[in-house]
Write a structure and sequence with these properties.
- This is Trehalose utilization protein ThuA.
- About 25% of the residues lie in helices and about 30% in strands.
- The chain contains seven helices and nine strands, in the order βαααβαβαβαβββββα.
- Strands 2-1-3-4-9-8-7-5-6 form a nine-stranded mixed beta sheet.
- The longest helix is centred in the last third of the chain and has 14 residues.
- It starts with a strand and ends in a 25-residue tail after the last helix.
């Protein structure tokens, strides 16, 4: 069973009554709920817990980390970012949602600003499937339609995706690479754009399906971590002494 930790800064839901009405238990618990229904072993962690809830023990027992953040990126400790970064390189999967594109961990893994255009007027979005054979798109139709979402628009300052799964179109005319995959070290990363805190995006059944699929895709390969550094010879080497 895949072990998942859902991380959320958990600030909007506690400080804004309108957002609390959408996610009364917090975005992290809404996401954790449908991942549990999909048969996963799920825990949650939030910014204000000791070590942001991401202790060495928690991360060492996490196959896939799901990350949601927005207004408190700078409050995440660099020490914890480095800790998560090491685990991704070692093979832990990472699913970064919505405004997590500006999180310290995503920017560190991408090596760019990860900046973009945005507009929050609650416009319709269509998420078009660009790679229908990809496992993250399994069970999804030709597109997913959201009645209201925050617009994210190109240019998105990230490296070219290894795989582009979804392209989002917004009724204001903008488009965006809304579902992208990357590999860093031995870890797999899925960035998925929808999920503004003011809209009930994470109640949408097809959005839930994509996130479930993304977690399953990002699960680590079950094999030993590679050994690096000075290596013993595998065969007998004929050595010549230079005089």
């Amino acid at each position: 069973m895949v072990k998942v930790t859902v991380w959320n800064e958990y600030r909007h839901e506690r400080n804004d009554d309108k957002i609390a009405a959408v996610y009364p238990g917090g975005i992290h618990n809404q996401i954790a709920g449908f991942l549990k229904e999909a048969g996963m072993d799920v825990a949650t962690a939030t910014l204000d817990e000791p070590e942001h809830g991401l202790t060495e023990e928690v991360l060492n027992n996490t196959d896939v980390l799901v990350w949601w953040g927005h207004i408190a990126h700078k409050e995440v400790s660099d020490e914890i970012v480095d800790r998560v970064h090491r685990r991704v390189l070692q093979g832990m999967g990472l699913v970064v949602l919505h405004s997590g594109h500006m999180s310290k961990i995503f920017m560190k893994l991408m090596g760019t600003t990860c900046d973009l255009k945005w507009r929050d007027v609650g416009e319709k979005e269509r998420l078009w499937v660009m790679n229908p054979s990809h496992p993250i798109a399994e069970g999804v139709g030709e597109y997913i339609e959201l009645d209201q979402e925050e617009m994210y628009g190109t240019h998105f300052d990230v490296p070219a995706p290894e795989e582009l799964i979804f392209v989002g179109w917004f009724e204001g005319g903008n488009v965006f690479p809304s579902g992208c995959t990357y590999r860093r070290g031995n870890g797999k990363i899925f960035y998925f754009q929808p999920g503004h805190e003011a809209y009930p995006t994470y109640y949408h059944s097809e959005i839930q399906r994509v996130i479930v699929n993304g977690v399953r895709w990002a699960e680590p390969t079950k094999r030993a971590y590679p050994v690096y550094g000075n290596s013993k010879e595998l065969e007998t080497i004929k050595r010549e002494v230079l005089l």
